[in-house]
Amino acid sequence: ASSGSSGQFVAFILLISSLLIVLLSQGFTFSSYHSVMNPKMLLAAVFVQRQRCFLQSQTFAKHTVSCSTMRAMTTSSDDSVDNGDRFFAMEHRNWETGFEAYDEGFGPLTRQTIPTLLSDGGFSPSIDTHQFKLLDVATGPGFVLSAAIDSSMKLDIPSDSYSNFQFIGLDITQNFLQMAKRRIDAQLQEQHQENIHFNIDFVEGSAESLPFDDGTFDSIVCNFGILHFFNPDAFLRESYRVLRPGGRISFSAWAPPDRTEGFRIALESIAEVGNPNVEGLPNGPNFFDFGDSNQAINALAKIGFVDTKSVELSEMKWTSIKNGSELYHILLQGTSRTREILLGQTQEEAAAVSSVMIQKYDEITASGKRCLAMPAVISSGCKPTTSTS
Predict the structure, then answer these.
(1) Rg (CA), the chain
(2) In tens digits, what is the pLDDT along the chain, a chain of 389 residues?
(3) What are phi and psi of 83, to 5 degrees?
(4) Which of 17, 209, 274, 330 could pair with 270 in a Cys bridge, judged by C-beta atoms 3.0 to 4.6 Å apart?
(5) What is the DSSP letter of 366?
(6) How far is CA 219 from CA 11, 190, 196, 231, 246, in A?
(7) For residue 272, what are the contacts with CB-CB under 8 A and spacing of at least 6?
(8) pTM of the entire structure?
(9) H or E element: which one contains 72?
(10) Half-sphere exposure of 280 toward its Cβ, with a 13 Å CA cutoff?
(11) CB atoms < 10 A from the CB of 312, how many?
(12) CB atoms < 10 A from the CB of 137, how many?
């Protein structure tokens, strides 16, 4: 009997140790005692941590943890390449179908980062600008390009000078590119500026292998796209390569789920009544990695960027979501990894997850009396004007 009790005690200690490792790796501190000790957040933190683990053989259950943050990645290079292809195929497939849901559901939210994103990314057109090239990576519905063009149109310059501005939107799906093109065409017509001729191009391609020459761009921006790249460091390296010396990059990412209420509702609900261990999903980087300012700045510095900074936009609100049912369906139709997890639920699990999300939404928002808090982190850096080697 004593040996059995001893074994249970050891198992309990191991479980608590694993949970503490997960929490600390997500940036939790003991100063945030109340959120740390919330058992629902413990489950959510474990679920988020699963994204860190690249091992195909990992297991995760609602009441056990078998994937340690200390475990080394043991997949072969061939396995990594194959997994990267599967991850890209998943992203491409979901954005080919989810572009309209993302535009409608996330658009009012993700637009809130654009002024800071453009400013920190070095986009500052002026009447003295002779030529300026902006690349919007993962342009999606074209919100960022539209805002940049709008700013440029307000300049008091001769109409033939607008051709000095070159705007390029890059995405992996034609549906998003066509949506962005339609949005900007309508914007120019609505403002009766058909006589203004910007250089605007839309390119289908990968952020991890940018199809541009070295030193091409003055500014590179990426609004929540870095969350969807299998190898974010490859995107940063490619951005460094195609930026001119002195050019800037900026990108946005969601803050961790203890602060982004929409994601917290989904993660807690899946962990409590659903199946967070959907089989067959390609492994990928932690969705919330770049919501950690220190991690984002370190990633930029590792590539060689200088004058780095990271700011949190803590006042962002999800104004377009009015109830928990809307939240569930937007995450189901207008995302990629979350969509795959929701689609992987059984009919009974899906119904339970949806029901719990509705309850949690009402609890957090007082039945819709306030909007969900959804802060984002914007990180940026500059390519040095001289070689640092």
Answers:
(1) 22
(2) 444 444 444 444 444 554 554 444 444 443 343 444 444 444 444 444 444 332 232 223 333 222 222 222 223 344 566 889 999 999 999 999 999 999 999 999 999 999 999 999 999 776 566 689 999 999 999 999 999 999 888 877 767 777 888 999 999 999 999 999 999 999 988 876 656 678 899 999 999 999 999 999 999 999 999 999 999 999 999 999 999 999 999 999 999 999 999 999 999 999 999 999 999 899 999 999 999 999 999 999 999 999 999 999 999 999 999 999 999 999 999 999 999 999 999 999 999 999 999 999 999 999 999 999 999 999 999 999 976 54
(3) -65, -35
(4) 274
(5) T
(6) 52, 27, 22, 21, 9
(7) 40, 43, 62, 356
(8) 0.80
(9) none
(10) 7
(11) 14
(12) 27
Q: 207 near 235, Cβ under 8 Å?
A: yes
What the block records as the tokens of 229 is 């790249």
3-state secondary structure of 97: helix
The token pair at 297 is 């700045």
Angle among Cα 233, 234, 237 to the nearest 5 degrees reads: 85
DSSP class per residue in 25-37 = HTT--GGGHHHHT
Q: Which amino acid is at 115?
A: P
d(CA 375, CA 110): 10
Read off the tokens for 209: 């292998």
Cα separation values, 97 from 21, 101, 171, 173, 331, Å: 37, 9, 14, 10, 13
